[in-house]
Amino acid sequence: MQLGPIGALLPVSFTDTPPVAAQRAAARRLEAAGYGALWANEIPGKDALVQAALLLDATEHVVLGTCVANVWVRAAPTAHAAAALLAQTFPGRFVLGLGAGHPEQAAALGRDYGSPVRTVREYRTAMTATLAPDAAYPCLLAANGPRMLALAAEIADGALPAMVEPAFTREARRVLGPDRLLVVLTRTDPDEVRAHHAAGADHVIVSVPPGGDLEAGVEALCAVRP
Question: DSSP 3-state assignment of 74?
């Protein structure tokens, strides 16, 4: 899998979902701009795994990752089956980023948020115990704190912290060790991107402020040289 040094988070709108054709065109444009990977978030009303399938089909070589798939949205065996199917269909081009999100997301589905570390551990256990199709795909845990970082080092292929300082990235690399994948989501500031790489990130995802227009967001991302 070739993530490359820089990826792009597809622009996020909280008011509507852009037409599929527009999303696919945006993915092709970002791929042509030189990004090694594209990342899709998961908000109410949008399935990140379905979106990843549509965008993988629309592109040729770019990696698609979820940033992040929410554990409250689907059962663990379903998540594994979907991720395995994507990995089989698009070998070496899919990364499952997984996280517990926010208490409001759990409450919206009538669930008790509880301990996110325990929830994610149990979710991963249920994923790996399933008899769903077996296909290798990297699984990263959204980890913005020390306990989730430690869990990522233990049960996942790496970690995906978001909007953290380079000092956190440096600590994440220490906790994960040299062999786990460290992906960091940050802004489009070139100095921040360089700082996270210097601190030990393998791959840095750049993002524009959420809530804007898809086309304008893609323009801004294409203006950043990967």
Answer: coil
| pLDDT digits 0-9 by tens, 34-71 | 999 999 998 777 899 999 999 999 999 999 999 999 99
Q: Where are the alpha helices (DSSP H) in the chain?
A: 20-32, 48-58, 76-89, 103-108, 116-129, 146-155, 166-176, 190-198, 214-222
Domains by residue range for the chain, with CATH: 6-222 (3.20.20.30)
pTM to 2 decimal places: 0.94
CA torsion 204-160-46-208 (nearest 10°) is -30
- The one-character DSSP state at 92 is T
Dihedral sign computed on CA atoms, order 155, 52, 218, 102: negative
- State the residue for tokens 């054709």: 21
